[in-house]
Amino acid sequence: MDELMDLPSRTSQKTGAIALSSNTLESLPAKIELPRYDRSHLTPGILHIGVGNFHRAHLAWYIHRLMQQGAALDWAIIGAGVREQDSLMRKKLLAQDCLTTLIELDPLGAQETEITGVMLDFLPVEADNKSLIQAMADPQIRIVSTTVTEGGYYLDAKNNGLDLTHPDIRYDAENPESPRTVFGSMVAALRLRRDRGASPFTGLCCDNLVGNGAILRQAVVGLARLSDPELAVWIDEKCSFPNSMVDCIVPATGPAELQCARSMGVEDAAPVTHENFRQWVIEDDFCAGRPDWDLVGAEFSAHVHQHEARKIRVLNGGHQILANVAEIVGLESIAEAMATPLIHALFRKVQTEEIIPHVKPLSGSPVIDYLDLIDRRFSNDAIIDTVRRVAFDGSARHAAFILPSIHDGLATGVSVEGLALVEAAWARMCEGTREDGSHIEANDPLWDMLTATACAARQTPAVWLDMTQIYGDLARHERFAAAFEKWLASIYQNGIEATIRHYIDQK
Q1: What's domain 2-302's architecture?
Q2: Residues 232, 227: Cα–Cα separation, whole Å
Q3: pLDDT at position 177, please?
């Protein structure tokens, strides 16, 4: 509850900045761009589940830009969540009328600040998700979008499908009227819409998953099939789940970000900083209409998978190359890691030799040019993107971002030495200490299991790969397993620096 002390109404007098609210917008400094639309004339069209920083800097920003042009006024957003931390975000945003301060940070030091007002409400977070279900059942809502993290889709690494054995999925199948999960809530809402003769909605996944629309469809239809097979058929036939590729580096909000907003003259309990780059590629498959996002920079394409694969392999995979190593040696930000010659060399070698060979170029643009772009974006020291944020939920992120390149390398004969080192570094990080002996706080939903396994792997490296819920059958691939065991042993015997240097120097 200490974080609640950061609410604008309680701190504005101490900082001199103006507390953000609908009543204070016109009092904010002139350098801050304000909404030009009348928020009282907005009506909701999107319900978004998972109102974090990324959503507010990405999907919500695209809606905001349209509204600044006088368009999309019937596509305002209602926020929602199903996790305890969503309740805290709800309190913060409701206290400032669901307004958000967005601060763009340029590598040269320039800052552009704007206030967005596209969110009208944030639903109560309830155990039975009653308010969420009723809101999604409203025909006004034509898109239900999600950012619930890569680990929030209950994927089974063994069959690459929905984990039907997970307690949450089993609970929702047995209690379809009072579900725990996002997907069970969507099923319940769609049941109400069907029974009332209302149209379906589009499910729009905005998480970093290859085929994210197909994965969302799989989760919703697969869960419906467990309790109501006829409803599952209706959802599969009537609803649409477009794939999309989302991209913008958006750090978590901490003291530095709060102070950054204050320096601009606004007291915001949850400001968002972001880089000066944004991309969104979407399949044009919306069963109930959509905003004209393409008018403000989004791209509608039938080739989303190619964009997804490139971004997830190079950018998101690149983040995992850096984060665990940086955590082990005590670096705080991704920009610091990129500024460390040895870690930067690791990043470039793994990318060029083991990831890029499996990435197809787009529109004739060499993949190496895309890597160079990512290199520049990661090196932007104006963005304090913490190692801890990037390393969070490694059990889902490594499975989604690193393992596909390993499988491709094993299938094609391309080296997997560097990727094995990346996995060994993750195992070493999950042991829970840095090389200086300092403690690493829990940073994964499976942290207790990961730490116990990592401690056992110090003596028996193979047990790490025996986590089949993450690695599937990779332990049976001798070339990868041997490389992993070699690198993990080296990290413990020689240290991470010497181990990386050995990898870089080998031909």
Answers
A1: 3-Layer(aba) Sandwich (3.40)
A2: 9
A3: 94
